[in-house]
Amino acid sequence: MASDNTEIAVRACAYCGRSTDLTNEHVVPESYHRALGETISIVKTPTEDKAIPNPQEIGDVCAACNSGPLSCLDSYLADLTQKYFSTIVHAADRIRFHYDFDLILRLTLKVTYNVARTRNWPIEIFQEAREFILGAKSCPSGLRLFLQLLIPTPVSKTKLPVTPGTMEVPPLPWRADLYDMSGFPGFAFHCSVSFMSYRFFIVREDMNIPSAIRKRSVARWLKENKGAYELTGRGDATVYASSVTVLDALKGNPTFEGQLSKARKLKAEMKLKKSKTRHR
Fold it and tell me: 227: how many CB neighbours lie within 10 A of its CB?
């Protein structure tokens, strides 16, 4: 029998910090997966990445946050998916992108924060931004948001296995990445999250660094990320397709091909199982 002095560990909500009963939060909203017809997720286990046949969840969010402000952000993603993300952008396309700056920044921060907790990324920036994500405080200083429109990779430019008759490798349903900022003085943080062709970069400048240094780093970063367009409070931007293809964006990512192989293997297994079930 436990003694009277035994302490029971109580977990706190990852967003509001309250110690209460916690619920499961989808890393990327389930409605987004349903809209695109893709439910395979890559999850990080103690030993390796693993493909699973359903949207990934993380169980550290209270019901009040989950069904309240976070649900509102999920609805906003559903709206953007219907208007923009469900269509693949091709070379020479021009997109008139209408958005609510606070909502799009809160949404992208939310998704990358969810990913960060599942993949052991540094989460200090997200912890500072939690109340902003919930809509309870204004945006933390130094945060900037950029949009880059990725285009498909022609099959002729890849050695990846493809289905016969395929002409291009389309964008991934979604992906999030964290980047090393050591080569950019004045950058405190840099990550991205993409929804099909729409790749959003979240950059945080270190406001303690002189502005001249930060400006030079931003200018160099923009040269390395062709076609990235900064989103502002205007809420309306005309963005041209970049020259960056889907697989160009993943160059230098040593884990990508392994993850893609696992996802393809699971997808083939699911397709075979479905086919056998249908013919019984």
Answer: 18
Residue 175 CB burial class (10 angstroms; 0-12, 13-18, ≥19): buried
Give me the number of domains the chain comprises: 1
Mean pLDDT for the chain overall: 88
88 within some domain:
yes
Among 63, 78, 67, CA closest to 30: 78
**Residue 128: is it exposed, middle or buried by C-beta count within 10 angstroms (0-12/13-18/19+)?**
middle
- Whether 13 is covered by a domain: the verdict is no
DSSP 73-111: HHHHHHHHIIIIITS---TT-EEEEE--HHHHHHHHHHH
- State pTM to two decimals: 0.89
pLDDT digit string (tens) for 56-108?
899 999 999 999 999 999 999 999 999 999 999 999 999 999 999 999 999 99
Are 167 and 181 in contact by the 8 Å Cβ rule? The answer is no
Q: Is 10 within a domain?
A: no
Q: What is the pLDDT of residue 275?
A: 66
Amino acid 43: pLDDT: 75
- Backbone φ and ψ of 175, nearest 5°: -160, 145
